[in-house]
Amino acid sequence: MGKEKYEKMKSRIPEDVREHHKKAREEMREGFRSLFPEEFIARRKAARKEMLLAARGMIEHAINRLEKEKE
């Protein structure tokens, strides 16, 4: 989301509502952490990173292929 769009949205939502939303997100994260062992959280984070790296690799490959087609 762009900064301008975010600021416009932010002005429509009352500050107290945004604060409740932020606290609810924090509580959900803490609840999730309390359900699973720390090792699971670390592995989940590592898996997420690998998925993002794979997506980046696919995007870079597609861009390179498009650039080669131009030549």
- SS field, number of helical segments: 3
Q: Report the strand count.
A: 0
Order of helices and strands: HHH
DSSP helix fraction: over 70%
Q: How far is the first residue's CA from the last residue's CA?
A: 34 Å
**Radius of gyration, rounded?**
20 Å
Plain-language structure description:
- The chain is mainly α and 71 residues long.
- It contains 3 helices and no strands.
- The longest helix is centred in the C-terminal third of the chain and has 33 residues, at 38-70.
- The mean pLDDT is 90.
Summarize the structure.
With 71 residues, this protein is an all-alpha fold. The protein has three helices and no strands.
List its traits.
mainly alpha; 71 residues; 2 domains
Chain-wise SSE layout:
Elements: H1 3-12, H2 15-35, H3 38-70
